[in-house]
């Protein structure tokens, strides 16, 4: 199936094979278009970063499917503004938020099944709908739906060039299973992700520190199509140094470690750098609104590494880690096992413990249990590290996806200084920087991909018709 020679002309060629690409392909095929998906990865790795996702952040006015209570547009938007610090296109963001409400039933009607959120998953039962079987099950369901609709799928299909002629795209050049091919279509949807797997590009943007980053997303998102469009004068949006980067286990693989490598222990930890010094408030806010800043914080430390230290009181308060923590009976022993200066770390912990103030500890909400008098105070969940055994994790920056992307309109149409490119749309991580200027909100990447994937598919099909 994946090695047939493509026919002369399709109605729509979709570049990419993750959530946004699939939503676009399904929507266009349901409108009667003849659609091909060109997925750069081999079949077992199809789906891009969507394979690693777990949930979808969704606005709703009352209980809906697995979601409890209500989560309105303004609260959702405020949550987004908090993490992006205002670096967002309000119009596009509110459109994505409002449209997310109708996406959930659409997803269910196209084979995606949901489950109630597990306890300990960042307390998201009201705001985020979790996929039964995770992102891989969602990807598989959408591929089944697409194939039922007659969408043709090619794997190992790396698009190398999108041919722009004025305000129109004429064809794609691709390597399909190693053979050069030309793919012609009347309309095109680019949904091929960010550039994070191209370490040289990351290093050009960030500096040499980026060579120490781990890429927790797919190794196939190298930004080839994004680079090609920027080189051809498409409008860009976002900053090449901004990305969704979280603190992950330092033992994770260089690529594709996915969601299981994330560590959720930070709010209950003391986090130090390799010099044994704390460098940020670990208890600033609840974890769904703060987990995505820690990749960047760790990236700014010497050797791009941090160390989270916890005690026996906290070991069961977060999702278990994929690798067991380092364990010791004393803080100096723990420091030594982690390659840190035992005296320096013991002094930091002693100073922190002495600064903790009494209060009532609430692990799932802001409890105001804070330290007093430190250069960097911890403002919630601050309890002394005093109960052995002690545990530690090495933290490294894990990049999920980059925010430099293509500027799009409300209709997901790709823009250029000469105006919109008439038959070109984009969805997902290749345009997410339009909305995510910095920071990240759990489940929001899937929201952007679903909303703009459906819009791109609908608009491309209307253009062809």
What does this structure look like?
- With 465 residues, the chain is of the alpha/beta class.
- The protein has two domains: 9-208 and 403-464, 3-Layer(bba) Sandwich (FAD/NAD(P)-binding domain); 246-398, Succinate dehydrogenase/fumarate reductase flavoprotein, catalytic domain (Flavocytochrome C3, Chain A, domain 1, Alpha-Beta Complex), CATH 3.90.700.
- Helices cover 26% and strands 22% of the residues.
- It is built from ten helices and 19 strands.
- The strands form four sheets. Strands 1, 2, 6, 7, 8, 9, 18 and 19 form an eight-stranded mixed sheet that branches.
- Helix 1 links the parallel strand 1 and strand 2 (35-38).
- Helix 1 (19-30) packs parallel to helix 4 (134-148), helix 1 runs parallel beside helix 10 (444-464) and helix 8 (331-337) packs across helix 9 (342-355).
- The longest helix is centred in the C-terminal third of the chain and has 21 residues, at 444-464.
- The two termini are 27 Å apart.
- Residues 11-437 form the FAD-dependent oxidoreductase 2 FAD-binding domain.
- Keywords: FAD, Flavoprotein, Oxidoreductase.
- This is Tricarballylate dehydrogenase.
- It comes from Paracoccus alcaliphilus.
- Its cofactor is FAD.
| Count of distinct strands | 19
Structural class determined from secondary elements: alpha/beta
CATH architecture of the largest domain: 3-Layer(bba) Sandwich
Q: What fraction strand?
A: 15-25%
Classified in CATH, the superfamily of the largest domain is: FAD/NAD(P)-binding domain
* Terminal Cα span: 27 Å
- In terms of quaternary structure, what is this? single chain
Q: Using the coordinates above, name the CATH class of the largest domain.
A: Alpha Beta
Radius of gyration from the CA trace? 23 Å
Overall geometry comes to elongated
């Amino acid at each position: 199936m994946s090695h047939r020679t493509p026919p002369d002309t399709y109605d729509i060629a979709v570049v990419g094979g993750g959530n946004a690409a699939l939503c676009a392909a399904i929507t266009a095929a349901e409108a009667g278009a003849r659609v091909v998906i060109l997925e750069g990865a081999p079949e077992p790795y199809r789906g891009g970063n969507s394979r690693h996702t777990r949930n979808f952040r969704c606005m709703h006015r009352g209980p809906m499917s697995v979601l409890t209570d209500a989560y309105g547009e303004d609260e959702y938007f405020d949550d987004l503004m908090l993490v992006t610090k205002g670096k967002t296109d309000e119009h596009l963001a509110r459109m994505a938020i409002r449209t997310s409400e109708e996406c959930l039933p659409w997803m269910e009607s196209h084979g995606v099944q949901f489950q109630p959120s597990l306890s300990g998953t960042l307390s998201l039962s009201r705001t985020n709908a979790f996929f039964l079987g995770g992102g891989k099950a969602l990807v598989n369901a959408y591929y089944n739906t697409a194939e039922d609709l007659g969408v043709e799928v090619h794997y190992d299909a790396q698009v190398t060039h999108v041919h722009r002629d004025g305000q129109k795209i004429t064809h794609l050049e691709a390597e399909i299973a190693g053979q050069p091919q030309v793919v012609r279509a009347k309309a095109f949807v680019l949904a091929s992700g960010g550039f994070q797997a191209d370490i040289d590009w990351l290093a050009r943007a960030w500096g040499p520190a980026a060579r120490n980053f781990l890429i927790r997303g797919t190794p196939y998102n190298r930004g080839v199509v994004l680079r090609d469009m920027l080189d051809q004068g498409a409008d860009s949006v976002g900053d090449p140094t901004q990305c969704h980067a979280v603190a992950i286990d330092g033992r994770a693989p260089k690529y594709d470690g996915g969601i299981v490598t994330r560590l959720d222990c930070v709010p209950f930890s003391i986090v130090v750098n390799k010099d044994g010094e704390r460098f940020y408030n670990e208890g600033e806010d609840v974890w769904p609104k703060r987990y995505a800043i820690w990749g960047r914080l760790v990236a700014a430390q010497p050797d791009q590494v941090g160390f989270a230290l916890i005690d026996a009181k906290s070991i069961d308060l977060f999702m278990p880690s994929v690798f067991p923590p380092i364990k010791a009976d004393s803080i100096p022993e723990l420091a030594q096992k982690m390659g840190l200066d035992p005296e320096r770390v013991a002094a930091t912990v002693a100073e922190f413990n002495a600064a903790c103030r009494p209060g009532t500890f609430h692990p799932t909400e802001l409890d105001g249990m804070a330290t007093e008098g430190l250069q960097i105070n911890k403002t919630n969940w601050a309890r002394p590290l005093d109960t052995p055994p002690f545990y530690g994790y090495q933290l490294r920056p894990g990049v999920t996806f980059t925010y430099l992307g293509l500027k799009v309109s409300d209709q997901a149409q790709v823009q250029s200084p000469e105006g919109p490119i008439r038959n070109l749309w984009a969805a997902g991580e290749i345009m997410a920087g339009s909305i995510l200027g910095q920071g990240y909100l759990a489940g929001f990447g899937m929201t952007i991909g679903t909303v703009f994937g459906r819009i791109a598919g609908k608009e491309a099909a209307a253009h062809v018709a």
